[in-house]
Write a structure and sequence with these properties.
By secondary structure, the chain is mainly α. The chain is about 75% helix and about 0% strand. The protein has one domain: MetI-like fold (Orthogonal Bundle).
Length: about 280
């Protein structure tokens, strides 16, 4: 009984902490984005002002930047899964000579500044025609995102273990059947984490996009950061809200795809690893 009460108190404390650290600042930012004359000291000058939002939703440059950002995020996500799923599975279930060195190499972009690495490969990308276009920017966004994807997915593979795959193979299951009917459902929490983290990291890449994109590929980050130099606080708040909505939209899109592609899809129970038909 005492343990149960402690768990309930822990849950309540965690919820209050999340409310204070995330929801409350977002609420204030939302109020600031649709009002003018607001100050911390008084609400007496508060009045609704939607002019900034009207500009944001009608400006063709911003709309194009949103489409470009979401398109790049989708490409980067697909490439992350193509690279990270096999790499994470090998690191989790296989033992081979040089495994520690191979793992260290995969995690190097976390240890070194991405900007320094991009400056080193910039000339090479120019020679291969990978600058000033979507493909080059998508590839360079893999540098800061792939190590995190591998780390997250490896933890998922570690928790599953190799035994289910071994049993499936004894029953004649193919590689695609094992991936589709065993790993995809059980890796769903890890897949969700990868989608969110990769989207946030890729979306915030200003310097890497500017260097490789050369000004031809305009993402929301390249429009967002210059707005900090303006004195219009309503504009800053509105663009910040818009910037935060893209990861939410990508999570919603990924959930729809998971519902279609992942077998036995259902909201996870406690622990996020039990699924039913």
């Amino acid at each position: 009984m005492e343990v149960s009460m402690r768990k309930k108190m822990t849950v309540k404390t965690t919820c209050l902490l999340v409310l204070f650290l995330f929801i409350t600042p977002f609420l204030f930012l939302s109020i600031k984005s649709i009002t003018s004359g607001w100050s911390w000291e008084s609400f007496s000058l508060l009045k609704v002002d939607l002019d900034v939002w009207k500009v944001l939703v009608t400006d063709p440059i911003i709309l194009k930047a949103i489409v470009t950002s979401m398109g790049l995020n989708l490409i980067v996500l697909i490439l992350n899964f193509i690279i990270s799923l096999p790499a994470a599975k090998v690191l989790a279930h296989d033992t081979f000579k040089g495994k520690a060195l191979f793992e260290t190499f995969l995690y190097l972009p976390i240890l070194f500044p991405s900007l320094a690495m991009v400056m080193g490969i910039h000339i090479t990308m120019i020679r291969f025609g990978l600058t000033d276009n979507w493909l080059g920017v998508s590839l360079v966004h893999l540098i800061p995102t792939v190590p995190y994807s591998i780390r997250i997915l490896r933890s998922g593979f570690d928790s599953i273990g190799p035994h289910l795959e071994s049993q499936a193979r004894t029953l004649g299951a193919s590689n695609m059947t094992i991936l589709h009917h065993i790993y995809f459902p059980l890796l769903l929490p890890s897949l969700r984490s990868v989608v969110f983290l990769v989207t946030v990291i890729s979306l915030s890449q200003y310097a890497l996009t500017a260097i490789i994109g050369g000004g031809s590929v305009i993402t929301l980050a390249m429009i967002y950061f210059p707005y900090f130099s303006t004195v219009n606080e309503t504009m800053i708040a509105s663009v910040s809200i818009l910037f935060a909505l893209i990861p939410i939209a990508m999570m919603g899109l990924s959930e729809m795809l998971f519902r279609i592609l992942v077998p036995y899809y259902k909201k996870s129970k406690v622990g996020g690893d039990l699924y039913e038909r």
